[in-house]
Structures are given as structure tokens and as C-alpha cells.
Amino acid sequence: MVNLNSNVPEGPLAEKWTKYKAGQKLVNPKNKTKLDVIVVGTGLAGASAAASLGEMGFNVQSFCYQDSPRRAHSIAAQGGINAAKNYQNDGDSIYRLFFDTIKGGDYRSREGNVYRLAEVSNNIIDQCVAQGVPFAREYGGYLDNRSFGGAQVSRTFYARGQTGQQLLLGAYGALMRQVKLGKVKINARVEMHDLVIVDGKARGIITRDMVSGKIESHFAHAVVLATGGYGNTFFLSTMAMGANVSAAWQSHKRGALFANPSFVQIHPTCIPVHGDYQSKLTLMSESLRNDGRIWVPKNKEDAEKIRSGSLKPKDLKEEDRDYYLERRYPAFGNLVPRDVASRAAKERCDEGHGVGTGLAVFLDFKDAIAKMGKKTIEDKYGNLFQMYEKITDDNPYETPMMIYPAIHYSMGGLWVDYGLMTTIPGLFAIGEANFSDHGANRLGASALMQGLADGYFVLPYTIQNYLADDISTPRMSTDLPEFKAASKNVEDKMSRLINVKGSKTVDSFHKRLGHIMWNYVGMAREKKGLEKAIVEIQELRKEFWKDVKVPGLLNDLNTELEKAARVADFLELGELMARDALQREESCGGHFREEFKTPEGEALRNDKDFTFVAAWEHKGEGKKAELHKEVLNFEFVELKQRNYK
Amino acid sequence: MDLKLKIWRQKNQNTKGKFVTYPVSNISKDSSFLEMMDVLNESLIAKDEEPIAFDHDCREGICGCCSLYINGRPHGPDEKITVCQLHMRKFKDGETVVIEPWRARPFPVIKDLIVDRTAFDKIITEGGYISVNTGNAADASVIPISKEDADLSFDAAACIGCGACVAACKNASAMLFVSAKISQFALLPQGRIEAKQRVDSMISKMDELGFGSCTNTGACEAECPKGITLTNIARLNREFIKAKVG
Ligand SMILES: Cc1cc2nc3c(=O)[nH]c(=O)nc-3n(C[C@H](O)[C@H](O)[C@H](O)COP(=O)(O)OP(=O)(O)OC[C@H]3O[C@@H](n4cnc5c(N)ncnc54)[C@H](O)[C@@H]3O)c2cc1C
Ligand code: SF4
Ligand code: FES
Is the C-alpha dihedral spanning A539, A541, A547, A549 positive or negative? Predict the structure, then answer.
């Protein structure tokens, strides 16, 4: 029986977390040294969790697929991290951050979890400053803030355009300190491929050493997945090349429910696609929308001229420009949430007003530079402008940037309860890998907040509630049949992949999957397209296992084999994403069904039938996943149609 | 555009490597250098050859994975960027491009263009952090820090740990990398408490791992993709002297 009890404590919102902590079980210091924890992933969530668990006295094994924990994809986050400090005295509060996040997520997240997130957000900033994270400061020496989409206050802390890097290096430092103290062991270039369950509890993982190719077994009393998001299902995304779903997906196949897989975020400000050879998309931070204005030509003829190069964008007269976000959403203007901004861009381009290849809009700093001076803009966004110029060969100080939406983040992920535990006892999921806090759409600067909240302040408590009952469980041998079987499972999979000896490369399959996903499971979805996607993905998966070509050896550093194993899992997840999107007959947040919209084209929720978390259970190879529903109860917030006008 | 690539191939740490020449054609000048490598790899796989192994992940100049030595320069011919941000428009049609791994004793080659940089993690382990436990922090606004110091600290903290500085240095010194971390903390009040110990243990670890000494040639600064400057090394030296005398 699947138990989808969220375990959110009863009582007033603001007291839930305090109450949980007061009532939870703890593990005493002596017993902690007897307990082993595996943390897979060294991004903000994983590094902060592993460091904190090490500090508390647990024995921690940390894993990542890169050559160093410092290179996890959190490093690429640009814009900032939210916290309800109200240093700007602009009316911010924990409640407001909570409310904005619930509303931004289009009322598809749990009140209790989101409130806790807002509550611990302030501790995160304190912790990071103490670690020496060089946040931006004002001339008076105090911390500076900026605004992000979906909020009317300035609550975003930042370190130039490299906030993720600075936060991650802080967490990495804390992690390495525990390595020095002997509490954490790092396993870099080691990839997780399976979860081991003994007597119904997660007890370890199976990995492949990416240098030697060796398949290895690791025991722990509890396993934490902090393995990031699955945006790469789409091939082109802002994710790192190696980002994958394998750890979460294999755990799903071992029994962990996967929640809201169709909830992915399409970020409005990315550098547009320019060629077939392209390997990834580059994000231009949302913070640019603080000062940049988004527009397309009002007339299609002008758009045509700009596309062909006969008219320069800066020569188009003010009155011939359509600042469509400011026009449609006067209250939030260029700072509407991401899903709204992305769809608006698509709508304009579909109508023939796009620039560049036709799939791009302008993000213009002309007015900001005139008002604040080039120097100020350079201080705020220098590295982003430089990055843009390196990629496109255009100078954004002189001509407007071109941007288009791209896949960026996954709100969906492993289902977890209030304690961040999945449906498998002893298996926890934190950071982007879980589904917990962002509902159907994540607000900017909230992923970093969630990753660090989970890792520093939530999991280290909640995991004890579980481990307290495990203090007399001795370490298990990895010779147990459960380990042997899981290990054989991975070995078999790897040899199957290498022995297909077909004719097409892994990337060619990945690109085809990406096309199906983008066309049918992307920014706008409809029943027919989703049904088509399911069939096409199934066929592609069959073809993959018959015709993929993986050169090289099993027991060697083999980058194609690594990719093949990841793509095999994306090919399964892709189908589930389409099924989930098909099932959800409403539009909410990043999930937009053409059939369900208001006359003005805005997303139309169906609260009566769809105020639930869709949690999918794996039923075995080739069988249809089963849908379970966790009904969301809103006790404190009134459900409303989102309005950013 | 068409190019002739001379690429270092090496099976593993224990075998000797050699250059192999590969022609590539029809490369878009708007593609990135690594996308050009992808095109080459796809064609090698099609011919049943093993693709070239190289490190990369974020492909936006921030993770520090990518590490190619191109025509005698770490990260190639463009200024202040990593190789994943390098675009083919920086090359000429018909050009010969020589591609090697980082070459430095503390960074042994693992395969082809991939090297082992765990030595950097080992140096950080010796003190590249402020020793504060989770939950011990005071309110973030308690210590104001001047914008100037915060900015300088940030400049140093921008290091991505790629190792280009080591690859560029004829002595394979890691001084620029180490000085960036030392400077980040030396400029902040939070970091002062452990300053002496930090500089002492990080430097001795660096020596122990076989990195060479700094003779101020400045090659590191010239090749650093993140603009880490030699002033950081000067600051490190001051910290080091302070640690020794007081
Ligand atoms: C370009 C970009 C910009 C962003 N900007 C912002 C921003 O300004 N503000 C904000 O709040 N959010 C931002 N985000 C989102 C945010 O960065 C991420 O959601 C967040 O950092 C994820 O952190 P994480 O710890 O969950 O996972 P990650 O940082 O992705 O780490 C995943 C870890 O898991 C490891 N791993 C994965 N699979 C395996 C496996 N099978 N075996 C072993 N190890 C594995 C990896 O090695 C890595 O260490 C941005 C995202 C991107 C892509
Ligand atoms: S100092 Fe520069 S070159 Fe050296 S590791 Fe850091 S970023 Fe790379
Ligand atoms: S691949 Fe990340 S810096 Fe180049």
C-alpha cells in the first residue's frame, strides 16, 4: 500500500516547524558515530547536507559525477537567493515570502513545507555570511538586495552574477572542512546507478567508478539523494551536460514515487537556439529583468526587416515597439513570473513578431544605461554582458540582447513528506531532486534558498527522527544478497548497453527525444500532442535498445557509456512526463494545456479536480505507472486565479 | 570552416600518449570549441573509433571542468574565458589547431585530455574555509563590510579552480589559485581569525603535492579565465610573512 501522508504537523502555520523540532526524536552524540549516511550529490543541497551531518557526528560518504564536489551545477546559478530579511524595509516578512511562493507556484504546493522554507531563509543568509560568502554590499557596508519575478519587494541577495558559485563554494568549504576532520569521505567521478533496499529500507547504493569502470556497493543506514533536476530530458536546456535523472529514476523503479514529473520550468531569458550542433542553452539571469525592458516590433513588417538585417533594432522608433509585458501586466511589468513571461514571448513569436531566427525577443538596456550610466549597469551585470557577447558576438551595451525561453528547472521530482523522506523508508531527497516546495512554478532565486534550507536546516533534523530508531542496527556487509543482486543489475545494464553495437550515437537519440519533448511536452501542451509523444517516445526507446552504438570498454573511462545510461533513463522519464501532463486537465504554472485557458489566454486552473500532487508508482518494466494523489489542503491561503495585471 | 586538429591521445595514466591528426570540415564559426569537439566525436563514433575524452560540464564558464591547452595556451586564444566559452570565430579557416591536456606533474593525465585535479581539493581541505558550524552564525547585518573590501574579496573568490594557472606556469606553481582563496578571506573580518593557520597549512600542502614555487613570471595571470590578479599573490606573501613573524 502506498502511503502518501505528508506528515505536516498540525497547528498554526508559524508553529509547525518549531513544534516538529520540539517533538522529534534525536540521536545522541555517541550513537551518531555508529551511523553512516550516504549523500549523493554535492550541489547546494548535497554539500550543505553532507557538511552539516558530518558536523553533527554522522559518518558521511559523499558522491558526485564531476571530478570535484565544487563543480556541481549549483555553481552556475547566477541571479540570487531569496530571504525574508526585510533589510530594505519594504514590507517583506516570512509570511509574504511564503505567500508569494505559494501563489507563484500556482497553488500546487504544500503550505506547511513552503512556510518552513520562508522561515529558515533568514538563517541561510546568516550562515553564508559567516562562511565568508562575499555578497554584494552597499556603500554603507550593508547587504544589498535586488528584485526577482513574482515579487513586489527586494529580497534577493546576490554576489554579482555568480551567486550560485559563491554559495556553493561556501558549502564546499564547509564540506572540505569535514573531510579534514575525518567525518566526510568524498567519492568524486563516481556515479550512482541503483539503490539497495534491505527489509524494506534504503541501505545503500551501487555505483560505477567513472575512471576504472568498476561497479561498487556502498552501505549506509540512510541514503540522501541531492542529485539535481531532470531538465536534460529535453536535450537542450540550461543544465550542465552531465546533469541526469538516473539516481532518482532508479530509486523510483525501486519503489519511490515520482511527483509531478510534468512540472518543468521554462525560463524566459535564455540565449536563443542558433544551430543543430548546439549542445546546450545559456541562461541570461532573470535579474536582468530588473533593468532590461522586453519588446518586439509592433508591426510584423518591421519584425521581418529586423530578421533580414535591413533594419537595426536600435533604429526602430519608440512608438513602433511593443513592450508586451508592460502592456499586458502593468502591475508587475517585466517582472512577471517566469511561466507568464515565457508564454508571452512564445505568443508574440508565434504571431510573427519574433526577431533573430524568428524565435527571439529583445531585452533592451538602452533606457537603463541612459538613466543609471554604463558603469552602474556594468557593475550589476558585467559578467552576464560579457558572456552574452562571447557567445553571440553582439555587444549588449549597444544593441539589445535577444532572448527566448528554454528549459531550466524541474519542479517535479521524488515525492517526499514533510521530513523530506521518500516513500522508501530511509531514502531522502533534497534540493531540486525532490518535488516539495515550488508547486507548478518556481519563483526566481528560490531554488538556491530551497537547496540550502533542505541541506543546512531541515534534513539534518528530520533525518534524525528516522535514524533514532536505527541506532542498534549494525553496519551491514555488502555481500548480502540484496547488494549482490542490485550490483548485478547494474553490471547487466552496462553490458547490455555496450553490446547493442547498433548504428546510431547516443546523442542522436537524445536529440530526437529532446525534439519530441519540446514540441509536445514543452511550453504549450494539448491532448493529441501528448498522446503522440507517448507513442513516439516508446518507439524511440525500442529503437535505442536495438540500435544504439556505444564504443569503448566497460572497464575504462567511457564517456559514451555514461551518456548512454543517462539517456536510457531519460527515455523512460520522458514518457511519464507526458502521461502526467495528459492526466492534468488544467493549466497551472509551467504546465499549460491549450484546452484550458481564459479568453485572454491566461492559464486556467481547475481547483475542484486538480488540487493534488500527482505521485506516480512504477509498476514494472513495460507496465503503465499508477497515479496516486496527495490532496493539497489549503488552510491558510485562499485559492485565487493568479493575477499579475 | 575546415580545420586540421592535432590532438593528444593517451589510453590511461600508465601508457604513453601521442598526437593524432584529425581533419574536420563544415564547422560553423558560431559554434563553440567544445561543440566542434562534439562534431568530431560523433564522426569518430560513426567510424567505430573511440571518441576523445575531455572534461566539461556547465559549458558556461563557471564550473571549471573544461581544461584544454590549445595552440600553446590554456583555454585557447581568447582572453579571460574558459575553453567552453571559446567560439570558432576566433580561428581561421584551414588552420591547424593543437589540443593538449594540462601539463603539470601534480595533474596527471587520466585519459586523452582529462587530467586529475584532486590536488586542488586537497589544498582547500587544509583551510580554504572559515570554521563555522551550521546554525552558529549571528545575524548577517552585524558586521558591516565596506563595499570596496567586499568587492575585492569577490574578485578573488571568483576563481573557478580550473588549473589553467598551473598549466600556464613553467614551474607548475599553484600560487594564483591558493592566493585567490587566501585573499578572499584575508579581506573579510570573518576570515581574519584563522588567517595565520590558513596560509601556513595551505602553502605547505601545496609544496607537499609537488607544485613548483612562484618566480613571478605572471603567466598565470595572463591565462586566468576569471581575471584573478597577481596582487592576490602579493597579498598571500604578506599574509605568509605575518604568519611567520607573529
Ligand atoms: C544556469 C542556471 C541558473 C540558475 N540561477 C538560479 C538563481 O539565480 N537562483 C536560484 O535560486 N536558482 C537558480 N537556478 C536553479 C538552481 O541553481 C538549482 O535548482 C540548484 O542549484 C540545484 O541544486 P541541487 O543541490 O539540488 O543540485 P545540483 O547543484 O544540480 O547538484 C547535483 C549533484 O548531484 C550529483 N549527481 C547527479 N547525478 C548523480 C549520480 N547519478 N551519481 C552521483 N552523483 C550525481 C552531481 O554530481 C552534483 O554534485 C539556476 C539554474 C541554472 C541551471
Ligand atoms: S586562479 Fe584562475 S586559472 Fe587558476 S584555477 Fe583559479 S580561475 Fe583557474
Ligand atoms: S565546462 Fe564548465 S567552465 Fe567550461
Answer: positive
